[in-house]
Amino acid sequence: MTRKLTRRKFVKSAATTGAGAAALVMGAPFVRRSRAAEPLMATSWGGMWLENMKAITDTHDPTVDWTPFSGGSGGLITQQKAVWPKLLYDFTANWDPNFRKMFNEGWLETVTESDMPNLAELPSAMLKYADDTGVYGVPMSHGAFFWGYREDMVDIEITDIEDLLHPSLKGLICANPPDMHNNLTIASMSMGVGGSETDLAPGWEFQKKLAKSGNIGRVVQTDVDLINSINLGETAVGFQGVSNWNSLKENHPIKRLNKVPGSKGMKVFYYTEGYCVFKGPRAAEAKSAVNHLISAENCGKYNAAIGQLPANLKSPVPDSAADISMTDAELKKYGFIPDWDLHSKNMDDATKYWEQEIQPLIRFG
User: Fold this and answer.
1) Phi, psi values for residue 48, rounded to 5°
2) Is the predicted pLDDT of residue 286 greater than 60, yes or no?
3) Is the domain of 230 the same as that of 209?
4) Share above pLDDT 90 across residues of the chain, in percent, rounded to a whole number
5) Is the alpha carbon torsion for 7, 12, 18, 21 positive or negative?
6) Is the pLDDT of residue 284 over 80?
7) Residue 1 has pLDDT above 70, yes or no
8) Phi and psi of 196, rounded to 5°?
9) Which pLDDT value is given to residue 87?
10) 95 pLDDT exceeds 50?
11) Co-location of 184 and 246 in the same domain
């Protein structure tokens, strides 16, 4: 009998990679306030992410003014560091590569079930961004990155990384720098040509070949730009999140390379999105807003809209997340849980390498 990679199975798989369960310690009582004179300030990815978070918090007291990230989500760290202790936001959406970085700067509140009751409905094994006082990275959803393409624009069947060099793909690949997707694009390439997540040299060499080939039609900096590039037919092939592919399939025939038999590089790379509350005078109100976002109803609405697995165990799994719901056997064949700390640690070097060694070689198709 097979078992689907539901949130519970995903939790078990993630825990076996070394992300243990967090111990929750009781903290200050849950605080609800009367309507604030000013809305809370928060930031997130743009497009569907921001729109759906806004729809949820518009029903909350206080409401939230959402601002899209300027560039990638990691850019928030540089921006906040430059002005600390002044706060740019009361809380932020973010994901695996950045939770620990922000906490290590001393910026974040920790939360427990006593001051964020809906935390009890999230699986404890996924509350991995925590210390002995509580959780500082509160999960909202589990998603995944994988390769895919517009079938109406691609004449070949792409089944492995080396197919990206095919001459028929001239100008059709949408590329991204390392700080987008935490360098998983290079990790995928490396795994596909004889390297690994920890040995990226083969992946960088393949990226050089791809840059020289003329198959790259655009280099983007954000998910919205990537979606737009493929949506408009500027490019047709990319490595991106399940939410992006769900958006694109509304308008085009999309081939999702999430279950490619025999491929070592075209895997499904799982990630977690969630929220962090900044230390400040409105931290209690920000915790209340996050608690509202992660409720079973709201977590379900949000993930149904973007096509990811809800972190709240009481939320239904949407049909749009079928691409990343796998049996045990499928997970072993097609799934991959990255070492986020490793990639985050090497991000500065990867970015410099991209700028110095890859960008000068890019010959747009």
Assistant:
1) -60, -30
2) yes
3) yes
4) 79
5) positive
6) yes
7) no
8) -160, 180
9) 97
10) yes
11) yes
CB contact at 8 A, 159 and 259: no
Structure confidence at residue 37 (pLDDT): 62
Arithmetic mean of pLDDT, 231-243? 96
- Same structural domain, 352 and 232: yes
Q: Using one digit for the tens of pLDDT, what is the confidence trace for 74-87? A: 899 999 999 999 99
Residues with Cβ within 8 Å of 59's Cβ and at least 6 positions away in sequence, in order, are: 292
Domain that holds residue 225: 145-269+342-361
In Å, how far from its chain's centre is CA 247? Answer: 15
- One-letter amino acid at 234 equals E
Q: Is the dihedral of CA 119, 120, 121, 122 positive or negative?
A: positive
Give the global pTM.
Answer: 0.80
Q: HEC string of the chain? A: CCCECCHHHHHHHHHCCCCCCCCCCCCCCCCCCCCCCCCEEEEECCHHHHHHHHHHHCCCCCCEEEEECCCCCCHHHHHHHHHCCCCCCCEEEEEHHHHHHHHHCCCECCECCCCCHHHHHCCHHHCCCEECCEECCEEEEEEEEEEEEECCCCCCCCCCHHHHHCHHHCCCEEECCCCCHHHHHHHHHHHHCCCCCCCCHHHHHHHHHHHHHCCEEEECCCHHHHHHHHHCCCCCEEEEEHHHHHHHCCCCCEEEECCCCCCCCCCEEEEEEEEEEECCCCHHHHHHHHHHHCCHHHHHHHHHHHCCEECCCCCCCCHHHHHHCCEHHHHHHHEECCCHHHHHHCHHHHHHHHHHHHHHHCCCC
Residue 27: pLDDT over 90: no
Do residue 164 and residue 251 come from a single domain? yes
Residue type at 297 in one-letter notation: E
Contact predicate 178/326, CB 8 Å: no
Q: Give the pLDDT score at 321.
A: 87
- Label the pairing between strands 91-95 and 40-44: parallel
Answer yes or no: is 183 within a domain. Answer: yes
User: Would residue 226 count as lying in a domain?
Assistant: yes
Look at the chain and report how many structural domains it folds into. 2
pLDDT value at position 118?
A: 98
